Amino acid sequence: MGDFFTEMRVRYSETDQMAFMYYSNYLVWFEVARTTHFRSVGLDYNKIEKERKLYLPVVEANCRYKAPLRYDDLAKVYTKISDCGKSRLTFDYKIYLNEKLTTTGFTRHAFINEKGKPIPIPEDIRTHLLQ
Amino acid sequence: MGDFFTEMRVRYSETDQMAFMYYSNYLVWFEVARTTHFRSVGLDYNKIEKERKLYLPVVEANCRYKAPLRYDDLAKVYTKISDCGKSRLTFDYKIYLNEKLTTTGFTRHAFINEKGKPIPIPEDIRTHLLQ
Amino acid sequence: MGDFFTEMRVRYSETDQMAFMYYSNYLVWFEVARTTHFRSVGLDYNKIEKERKLYLPVVEANCRYKAPLRYDDLAKVYTKISDCGKSRLTFDYKIYLNEKLTTTGFTRHAFINEKGKPIPIPEDIRTHLLQ
Amino acid sequence: MGDFFTEMRVRYSETDQMAFMYYSNYLVWFEVARTTHFRSVGLDYNKIEKERKLYLPVVEANCRYKAPLRYDDLAKVYTKISDCGKSRLTFDYKIYLNEKLTTTGFTRHAFINEKGKPIPIPEDIRTHLLQ
Questions:
Q1: Which stretches of chain A score pLDDT less than 70?
Q2: How far is D117 from chain A (nearest CA, A)?
Q3: ipTM reported for the complex, 2 dp
Q4: Closest partner residue to C57 among A18, A55, A58, by Cβ?
Q5: Which residues of C83-107 are buried (b: 16+ CB within 10 A; e: fewer)?
Q6: What is the rounded CA–CA span in Å between residue D35 and residue B60?
Q7: Chains that touch D (3 or more CB pairs under 8 A)
Q8: Distance in angstroms (rounded) separating the CA atoms of residues A47 and A53
Q9: CB distance B45–C72 less than 8 Å?
Q10: pTM score
């Protein structure tokens, strides 16, 4: 993975009665790490939505749970753009607790406009993402 | 409480490591029960938002946790409109597990328009709510 | 898909500012549909955990989002066991809104005991699951 | 309010279709801020649960929503212990976005042991909390 990561701590609300982080919450973490990744390369995803009316919905998500995260664990979510096509984008994720890899995953996204139609990734956004 | 209730089952995702339903999820249950209450009196909250551009945000929420709910519990959320002012509305909630009262609460709401301005509750909606 | 399905309605809490069901919530729906599937074949997942101290954590989850679900949509989540190995199990999911397929996915699970060790799927559970 | 606060950013998952932070998520924020407050006064809530088998469930929660929080907003959640009785504790919360007060609330807690019985707040914990 590259140099981008977001440090996150497991919230009590994110645990389940098995005392693990509940499995859907990893996708929430992926999304937070994506937003941070955008910010790290000089993009503001919030402004992309609000000012340019472009959206990046998820078309596929995948997560492999190798070891559990537990309440109050402070972990690092590494993000990497593994594919950047004409109008689609793939983010890869790896979550480390201390030095241990606990989770891997990916999300695929389409760029769409306000009407929900797929559009080519704007060049300025592509340039930032691939820097 | 009146005759309106929604039957709900505790999801695994709603539990926490104490093996109780996590405390914020009761507000989610209240919201589901509110939607059902609207439907029961002939109102479609979704259409009120989409077609009439009226919204009913929460201005205050309160919940008292008397006994925990646990995974897979099948409970009844009773709803009652306890106050209906010019532009504000209060829902009261009681959650029963079998015959036992486990939770009470209320939510206060304002009617607002698309611009976020408070408006008087439309007469047709008031009529349905107070029937 | 087989005959097992769970009818579910999109909660307001499950929407996001794109006005779609937020992508991690589909995994919550999958879990609710799994619990119903267990119940439909005569198994009580809650009792399996509480009385037999067996757990079925997710080792991989996947979801493909073909069309969005929106607030108050009433959809059907079809479940099917597509693989049942010595100690692992795969559930497939298809979500239909009216007659339209909106979502597909799968979850892979390991059977583990109280100490977190993988164990063979008990014969009585296998018999129920594969009926 | 005192000197304790936690900086938090609104997650996409926390928004709803009104484009506001969904109302139950404020209670999640309160919980995160509580954990930070504990840490700030030298207590580790996770260890209190795991090593001492003491729990601090919520017996009442209240929240007043004065102004909405929106996606990506970076806000401060101030916490203060407003009451500390024999076995009960009250936390007050104020959320500020920039210099604007958006939200107030409180949570009341009971100290219980592993069997769910209320117990007096241990003296060492009280000392830390009231410092």
A1: 1-2
A2: 20
A3: 0.95
A4: A18
A5: eeeeebbbbbbbbebeeeebbbbbb
A6: 24
A7: A, B, C
A8: 8
A9: yes
A10: 0.97
